[in-house]
Q: What sequence folds into this?
């Protein structure tokens, strides 16, 4: 290093500032290169699937690709009367082509989500368009089924001709577009999702509350017991944490079912008659008990790590200043544990709200969560757009709580075991 | 926690009441796991204790459900798949995660918090969402219903554990050790293998164990991504519980509890070794 007129430089005459920046830059690149392979992997195996799902929740390709001619003709339609001959001619051509390519099922199902009966209307019409050789097409189509004179159907086709749609999101919260394109509530008998979202939210809150109630005393005991014993007791917390989720759900079935162990004990003790065995599973109780058991360690561990840092002499000082035990606890110890309560509660809540397996196995009819409907639409009804929309809404909720968690506690402080 | 000498009468009573409450909560935590072990030796196809079991008659107990497990091709195929998938995804997650953790713990790392949040996200995003998303994407690129698809999915789920444990180990790593190695003439590669690696090994191994058990236990994502070829133990249990509820599941559950005890012991030993190597405890 030598001193020149302008300032400090390295031996080669490069200003020190520039040289330092170069080294920093090199170190940054080196660090980034180490992270890059994993980053690339996660983008392919995790981020892109999530983005793909988000796109699918608004994706609407069926009508505008499979009924392309009809859609083009409907551009100039006034929207108030039955469309004219040109539109019907386009429809017949689209249906003929679709029937030949055997891909009308997609568009038929898509339109059927919005107006039930569309699937059969389209398949029926497509089957018979083969016989229509020449015009007038309007008359011929109305001959096949006069439902085509219904303006609502044409409005639906025009509305859904957009390559992107909000219909799935609306359906996921029990709303829909009416024939004028305004957002209205679904008919009462079709409303399920709002209620399920609300139930999932409240059940998750209840589970979080139960975990806090049961976890707080245990964390307190672990943090205030000599290390020799607390290490031993910690194993009792970690063992269920490490045990398979399915195993834990299975044992609750064995314990809680009507011919299960708990009912046997109650009957054996004479507390219950043989015929009045309690149903504690395949309902809300089953979900609450099994999920509290499964998520309890996630509450205990953050609470414990916070309580561990509270010096025991704070309580003693409060006592020596004349505070009764309860007051000392409430005014001194409890406020110090609030960060742990926050961390544990948000963690348990995030995990609870997205749980699928346990509610599906022990929840019965009234203990299931919104996640069960994602699975239902993925596997049974095959309405993937709706599944993607429900999953996306759930994802936004979880991300919101994750950001709060990150702001309050920081992801760096996540501890395991 | 002992009763202090200045404790008043009600406090002494509360002290014992508190102990009883804690004992009950511990029973709630561990009891269900212990109940399942004797039940798996039931001679009858019931999920509850029979008269014969309660009176300790030898013919109330049997190994028939274990025999059932070890002679069933479905279960054996599932165990083979589970082990194969868990090992492959653990290896991948451990290698990628450890290298990334080295970069993440460098103080020059740009966008550290954002990248860290992204790497933890597979742990936070509900499994059903990851499962659905991977199903959509993997069927687009032809990975659905393949071993590779399941392995990639499980690697993504295991990565947060490896990253968390290894960065935690590295955060308490004393960087003067690498400088000492360099000043003694070791090149960076030699320093990595002779100094850094032995010290972070406990973190790497416990991260790998977490990744392994995550893959071994995982059912939601497999449910979506796998085909009939890739049935794993959790899938087999899942359909067992849903369809024909047979005590074979209890035998499997017992073996899984034993497996988790084994893993837990390994982790505890690793933790002690790591503390000893850092001189944190006299060992």
A:
């Amino acid at each position: 290093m030598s001193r020149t007129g302008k300032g400090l430089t390295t031996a080669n005459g490069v200003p020190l500032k520039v040289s330092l920046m170069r080294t920093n830059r090199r170190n940054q690149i080196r660090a980034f290169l180490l992270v890059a392979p994993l980053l690339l992997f996660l983008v392919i195996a995790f981020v892109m699937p999530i983005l793909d799902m988000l796109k699918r929740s608004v994706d609407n390709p069926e009508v505008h690709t499979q009924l392309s001619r009809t859609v083009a003709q409907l551009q100039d339609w006034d929207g108030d009367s039955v469309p004219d001959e040109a539109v019907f001619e386009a429809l017949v051509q689209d249906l003929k082509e679709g029937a030949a390519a055997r891909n009308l099922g997609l568009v038929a199902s898509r339109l059927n989500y919005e107006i039930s009966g569309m699937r059969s209307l389209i398949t029926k019409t497509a089957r018979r368009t083969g016989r229509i050789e020449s015009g007038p097409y309007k008359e011929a189509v109305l001959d096949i089924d006069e439902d085509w004179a219904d303006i609502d159907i044409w409005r639906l086709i025009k509305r859904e001709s957009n390559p992107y749609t909000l219909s799935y999101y609306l359906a996921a919260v029990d709303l829909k577009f009416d024939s004028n394109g305004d957002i209205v509530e679904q008919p009462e008998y079709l409303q399920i999702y709002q209620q399920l979202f609300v139930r999932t939210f409240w059940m998750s809150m209840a589970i979080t509350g139960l975990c806090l109630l049961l976890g707080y005393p245990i964390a307190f005991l672990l943090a205030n017991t000599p290390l020799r014993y607390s290490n031993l007791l910690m194993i009792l917390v970690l063992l269920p944490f490490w045990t398979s989720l399915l195993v834990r759900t299975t044992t609750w079935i064995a314990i809680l079912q009507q011919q299960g162990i708990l009912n046997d004990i109650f009957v054996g003790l004479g507390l219950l008659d043989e015929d009045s065995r309690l149903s504690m599973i395949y309902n809300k109780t089953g979900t609450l008990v099994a999920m509290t058991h499964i998520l309890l360690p996630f509450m205990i561990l953050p609470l414990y790590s916070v309580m561990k840092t509270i010096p025991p002499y704070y309580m003693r000082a409060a006592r020596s200043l004349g505070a009764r035990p309860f007051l000392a606890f409430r005014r001194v110890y409890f406020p110090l544990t609030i960060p742990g309560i926050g961390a544990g509660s948000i963690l348990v809540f995030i995990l609870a709200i997205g749980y699928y397996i346990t509610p599906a196995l022990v929840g019965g009819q009234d203990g299931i969560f919104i996640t069960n409907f994602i699975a239902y639409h993925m596997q049974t009804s095959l309405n993937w757009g709706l599944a993607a929309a429900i999953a996306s809404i759930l994802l936004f909720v979880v991300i919101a709580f994750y950001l709060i968690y990150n702001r309050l506690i920081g992801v760096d402080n996540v501890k395991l075991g | 926690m002992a009763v202090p000498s200045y404790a008043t009468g009600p406090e002494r009573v509360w002290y014992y009441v508190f102990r009883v409450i804690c004992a009950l909560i511990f029973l709630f935590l561990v009891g269900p796991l212990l109940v399942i072990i004797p039940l798996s030796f039931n001679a009858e196809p019931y999920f509850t204790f029979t008269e014969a079991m309660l009176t300790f008659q030898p013919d109330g107990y049997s190994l028939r459900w274990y025999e059932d497990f070890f002679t069933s091709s479905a279960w054996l195929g599932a165990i083979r798949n589970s082990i194969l998938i868990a090992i492959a995804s653990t290896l991948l997650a451990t290698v990628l995660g450890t290298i990334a953790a080295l970069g993440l713990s460098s103080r020059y790392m740009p966008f550290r918090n954002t990248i860290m949040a992204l790497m933890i996200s597979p742990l936070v995003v509900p499994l059903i969402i990851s499962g659905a998303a991977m199903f959509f994407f993997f069927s687009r690129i032809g990975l659905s219903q393949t071993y590779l698809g399941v392995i990639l999915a499980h690697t993504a789920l295991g990565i947060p554990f490896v990253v968390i444990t290894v960065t935690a180990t590295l955060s308490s790593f004393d960087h003067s050790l690498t400088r000492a190695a360099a000043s003694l003439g070791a090149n960076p590669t030699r320093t990595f293998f002779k100094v850094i690696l032995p010290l972070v090994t406990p973190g790497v191994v416990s991260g790998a164990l977490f990744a392994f058990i995550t893959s071994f236990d995982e059912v939601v994502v497999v449910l979506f991504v796998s085909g009939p070829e890739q049935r794993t133990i959790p899938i087999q249990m899942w359909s067992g519980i849903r369809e024909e509820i047979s005590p074979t599941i209890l035998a499997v559950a017992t073996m899984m509890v034993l497996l988790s005890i084994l893993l837990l012991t390994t982790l505890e030993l690793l933790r002690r070794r790591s503390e000893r190597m850092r001189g944190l405890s006299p060992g």
